[in-house]
Amino acid sequence: MKELDADKFLGSLSTKAAVCRQPEGVTFELTYGCNLRCLHCYNPTHRMLPHELTTAEVCSILDQIADLGALNVTLTGGEPTIRPDIVPILRHARSQGLVLQLLTNATRMTPAFATVLWEVGVSQVNVSIYGATESTYERMTGIPGSYAQFLRGLQCLAVSRTPVTVRMPVTTVNQEEILACRALVEDHGFKFQYCLDMMPKTDGNHTPLQYRLSPEDKHRIDRTLLPPPVDEVVENSCASSSSFIECACGKSRFTVTPYGEMNLCVAFPIPKYDLRKGSVKEGWDVLKRTVDRAQPNERYDCPTCDVRPYCRQGRSDAWLETGDMSVCLPHFKEWAELEHRTHALLDPRRPA
Predict the structure, then answer these.
(1) Which of 100, 93, 65, 81 minimizes the C-alpha distance to 30?
(2) What's the rounded mean pLDDT across residues 318-329?
(3) What pLDDT was estimated at residue 15?
(4) How far apart are CA 138 and CA 78, in angstroms?
(5) Terminal-residue alpha carbon distance, the chain
(6) Contacts of 264 (CB under 8 A, 6+ apart)
(7) What is the mean pLDDT of the chain?
(8) Which one has a higher pLDDT value, 14 or 151?
(9) CA distance 244 to 195
(10) How far is CA 302 from CA 163, 232, 240, in A?
(11) Is 19 helix (H, G, I), strand (E, B) or coil?
């Protein structure tokens, strides 16, 4: 019998789901409560408030997600392990046949909880790393002692059998420790990734953007750590889509907040459909209409932009920063121009 690679299968499933407008993946923010106070975070409160979803409400929504045919659910926060009912939630989600991923900072990880993740069958644990040294890590998190807790958490996961990927949000504070972070992660036997995305808080506060790298630094880091550009990657990028909202939001993916609001994405917190008053099925219809009715205005220049195939700006970036999906953000334009020039130098046939 021919074996099918899991990543290829899930990628194919996601593509087909987007064409059929069938939800395939869900990001479920279980709480905004967090034990860290990361300076770059988009979390609007960091506190677990009384009106967050109850255990019964979370499980009901998970049931509806499964009934709608979605397969992949990513449980995140805040820090999801802040919730005292995290284990019953994990077990209930798996009982519905959902494929689970967990996003965590690992500072609250214990051997017992790592064992639960394996027993439940969590397919992937995604851990955030904020620095390779205590001083940088705790400058990022704002919490003394958090670096030692993180290292203990990594060790707990290292002796478990659950697949782990460790991701580094790269900022102006920790950018010099990328290679050291990669070495630390790989020494534990984990896969390392980095992320250059930075966005305002979802309540409109722009404070996190002061820690965003310059386009030049982003370009330098990518060129240092990524393989040489491949034409096919550029040609198949989201930016080449004919749709105004190019990403999977409202096509094959959606997000649920700790307050039961169903949105396009964590980074695109609209239309705030209230699942306490309606259903996931009805909410999905609302999200699809939200995407289909979104139209550009006179400020939308993407179709005529020379560097569009290299641009990583999405509609959510413009909306979060300006309230207007159509705006071209100079930060992303400068980054795209650098990428364009690099491709032109690598391929003399391309115009510079």
Answers:
(1) 81
(2) 95
(3) 55
(4) 17
(5) 49
(6) 245, 249, 250, 254, 255, 270, 271, 287, 290, 291, 316
(7) 91
(8) 151
(9) 24
(10) 39, 20, 10
(11) helix
User: Residue holding tokens 């087909």?
Assistant: 16
What's the whole-number mean pLDDT along residues 320-328?
A: 95
Q: Which residue has the tokens 């046939």?
A: 349
Our CA angle for 329, 334, 336, nearest 5°, is 95
In a domain, 334, yes or no: no
* Among 90, 72, 89, residue whose Cα is nearest residue 6: 72
Is the separation of the CB atoms in 329 and 318 below 8 Å? Answer: yes
Compute the radius of gyration of the chain from its Cα atoms.
Answer: 20
> For the range 295-304, what are the long-range contacts, defined as Cβ-Cβ under 8 Å and sequence gap of 24 or more?
295/244, 296/244, 296/325, 296/326, 297/324, 297/326, 298/326, 299/324, 299/326, 299/327, 299/328, 300/244, 300/326, 301/328, 302/239, 302/328
Q: How many CB atoms lie within 10 A of CB 327?
A: 18
**CATH code, domain with 257:** 3.20.20.70
Is residue 224 in a domain?
yes
* pTM for this model (two decimals): 0.89
- Is 109 a residue whose pLDDT tops 50? yes
Within 13 Å of residue 190, how many CA atoms lie on the same side as its CB? 30
Task: Look up the domain containing 263 and give its range.
Answer: 17-296
For residue 3, being part of any structural domain is answered with: no
pLDDT greater than 50 at residue 243: yes
> Does residue 253 lie within any of the structural domains?
yes
Please calculate the CA angle 25-29-31 and round it to the nearest 5 degrees. 165
What is the domain count for the chain?
1
Strands (E), the chain: 25-29, 72-76, 99-104, 124-128, 164-169, 191-195, 253-256, 261-263, 273-274
User: pLDDT band at 20, cuts 50/70/90?
Assistant: confident
Stretch 65-81: mean pLDDT: 97
Helices and strands (H and E) in the chain: how many: 12, 9
